[in-house]
Amino acid sequence: MSFQTGHVGLNVTDLDASKAFYERVFGFSVAGESKEDGRRYAFLAQDGTLVLTLWQQSEGRFGAGLPGLHHLSFQVVDLAAVRRAEAVIRELGATLHHDGVVPHGEGASSGGVFFEDPDGIRLEIFAPDGAGDRGAPTSGAPTCGFF
């Protein structure tokens, strides 16, 4: 038996704000949605494949100190794609950790940007190569730990 991630579902506080954020940063498109009070959700797709579902079923902010999701990571083809996403993240004024593109760890060539969505959910966009000319933000720990 072999498993692969089908899609990820996230609870959000404001469906419209979250949809706009994920459409702008990731280029996802809305493949389906409900605007019915008490049952608001959106299915977000990339190239016709469901990637993310957003469910307006929460209040407050993401709690990094609670059990559950640590962060959600997306791989892109190269560092240029990471930089394009970083520009949009900065334009939107989203919380950006580590002040931009950094490697996954000291001496690693892979790396990316680490940031938060409108609800504080921690996200990563990375490339497998090209970030090795920078120092890692934390010695002895993976950058994706958000330390």
Please explain how this structure is put together.
GO terms for molecular function: dioxygenase activity; lactoylglutathione lyase activity; metal ion binding. This is Glyoxalase/Bleomycin resistance protein/Dioxygenase superfamily protein. Keywords: Dioxygenase, Metal-binding, Oxidoreductase. This protein is α/β, with parallel strands linked by helices. It folds into two domains: 49 residues, 2,3-Dihydroxybiphenyl 1,2-Dioxygenase, domain 1; 67 residues, 2,3-Dihydroxybiphenyl 1,2-Dioxygenase, domain 1 (Roll). The chain contains two helices and eight strands; from the N terminus they run E-H-E-E-E-E-H-E-E-E. The longest helix has 14 residues.
Please, what is the CATH homologous superfamily of the largest domain?
A: 2,3-Dihydroxybiphenyl 1,2-Dioxygenase, domain 1
Gap between N and C termini? 35 Å
Number of domains: 2
Largest sheet: 4 strands, mixed
Quaternary structure = single chain
| Name of the CATH class of the largest domain | Alpha Beta
Number of distinct helices: 2
| Extended strand count | 8
Overall pLDDT level: 96
Shape: globular
The CATH architecture of the largest domain can be given as Roll
Low-confidence sequence ranges: none
Beta-strand fraction estimate? 25-35%
Write the layout of secondary structure elements.
Blueprint: E1 8-12, H1 15-26, E2 29-34, E3 41-46, E4 49-56, E5 72-75, H2 79-92, E6 96-103, E7 111-116, E8 122-127
Parallel strand pairs: 1-4, 5-8
Antiparallel strand pairs: 2-3, 3-4, 6-7, 7-8
Helix pairs in contact: 1-2
